[in-house]
């Protein structure tokens, strides 16, 4: 990852459908933004980059605290059924090619006689 870039984080936003979690999220976020505003007033900094960095940190930390990280459920790359189908097709292809080759050889022998 290059300097200045952050990793994307997925949060379980389904929790926001519950009114209790939604109100907790709003209160926590308001508190963090109030703290951020107070810091900016004290230091009298209005640099946009600093404001965005603080905003992003406030959102990220609130999501981590209230919503938790989203859990990924990875599926198997290929199911057992797919493996069976693939293996069967490969075997059938080999058998077909062998039969085709034998038939062709027999025809060539008969033709040349």
UniProtKB/TrEMBL annotation:
The lineage of its organism: Eukaryota, Metazoa, Spiralia, Lophotrochozoa, Platyhelminthes. This is Kinetochore protein Spc24. It comes from the Eukaryota. It comes from Schistosoma curassoni.
């Amino acid at each position: 990852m290059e300097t200045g870039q952050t990793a994307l984080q997925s949060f379980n936003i389904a929790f926001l459908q519950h009114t209790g979690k939604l109100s907790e999220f709003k209160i926590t976020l308001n508190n963090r933004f109030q703290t951020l505003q107070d810091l900016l007033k004290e230091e009298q900094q209005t640099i946009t980059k600093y404001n965005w960095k603080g905003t992003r940190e406030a959102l990220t930390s609130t999501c981590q605290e209230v919503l938790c990280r989203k859990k990924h459920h990875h599926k198997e790359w290929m199911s057992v059924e797919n493996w069976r189908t693939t293996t069967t097709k490969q075997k059938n292809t080999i058998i077909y090619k062998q039969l085709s080759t034998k038939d062709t050889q027999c025809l060539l022998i008969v033709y040349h006689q």
